[in-house]
Amino acid sequence: MDRKDGSNHKETSEIWKQNEKQTDQEKSTAFGNMLERSLNATYLSMGLTLGGELGLFDRILEQDSLTCQELAEKSQTKQCFVNEWLGLMVSSGIIDCIPDSDPERYFIADYKKSSLQGQYSWLAWAKELSGYFKTYDTVSQCFKLSGPRGVDRNQLDAFYDFYENMDKESADKWSEMKSTFAQIPGLIQNFENGIEALDVGCGGGNIFISLALQFPKSTFYGVEISEKALQVARKNAENCGVKNIKFIVADATNLPKEWTGKFKYVHTSHVHHDSSRPRKVTSEIFRVLASKGSLSIFENGTNGRHGDKSSDPNYLMGYFISTFACVPNATYDEKAEEPLGVYVSKRTIIKMMEDCGFSASVVGGEDKSIESPVHNHGSTILHYHGLKN
Questions:
Q1: 146 by DSSP, 3-state: which?
Q2: Distance CA 370, CA 160 (A)
Q3: Same domain, yes or no, for 101 and 184?
Q4: In the chain, how many domains are there?
Q5: Helix (H), strand (E) at residue 17
Q6: Considering the domain boundaries, does residue 136 fall inside one?
Q7: Do the bridges between strand 105-107 and strand 66-67 make them parallel or antiparallel, or are there none, so unpaired?
Q8: Helix, coil or strand: residue 290
Q9: Do 250 and 109 sit in the same domain of this protein?
Q10: Distance between CA atoms of residues 280 and 249, nearest Å
Q11: What is the pLDDT of residues 265-287, one digit of tens each?
Q12: Which member of 17, 34, 297, 319 lies 3.0 to 4.6 Å from 384 by CB, making a disulfide possible if both were Cys?
């Protein structure tokens, strides 16, 4: 399945759209069948999450085959629960049984293993769902006018831990990123000559670590609101032997006062749609940029209209994450601005940048090389460039 271009969803899109010439009764039946498939997929997703969290898949993948009792013993779980879980997995086609085995022996076919193993596997994404299950009741209350503003970030630890874990291994990806940074005139030359650059919301620091490796004359800074995230970033930098990068805990809405006019380049990637005060963040970035300094904002690029995404499952994951994590987190702060949401419109980003003093434009068209494609959710990533005149 190819997450990068959304092709894994094309078949589903065609199924959703093939009923255009059907009668109303046929459309109603097809719609009901689609809902049934969706609910069945939800049941399966919960089972995948459970199996991933408890290590059941890991134990099966370690063996050629094993019985329910053996799986329970190896995973230190109760056999009666494992028996029902195996039924869910076998009936959905995830796990296979050896025909006529008694007691039944279970295994995972070789062709399925790549989708269930590794940092970016579908099983890894299924495990992320556990964080959403824990906050479901709180998020549902946030919808109500009488409900809470949003959800405390601490309650969304499982969600943010998932993305931090995805950043645990850093690699030199300059060959993939060069064309992206070349979209800003003179930036690569500035890196070569030596400048100070800032990554706001750096996460595991992979992007700037790669830049620091490539441009030893420049000094790179990464800021995060979480010390936990920076522990990953510092470890990544240490593993790469990088000396010209610093990671600092800082609030993007209140960057250090001594940084005024300090940086020639500032980078953010998928930060604004998660922020409780995205306009304040942009204003702070403007303050810490030097004259003629450049800002890169990488965000999903849409026109902001739901109708243009009708029956397009490419957007399902992004809207799900935005509903259950991004917007609830962004609205929790009592000083929160209107949240942007995952699929913030191009017009909104450009206006925000201009209101904060930037000359703003979109450069380079679609970009998917700046970070792992699993963050794209099948949508287009735009590179917004802001120049401080």
A1: coil
A2: 20
A3: no
A4: 2
A5: helix 10-17
A6: no
A7: antiparallel
A8: strand
A9: no
A10: 18
A11: 999 999 999 999 999 999 999 99
A12: 297
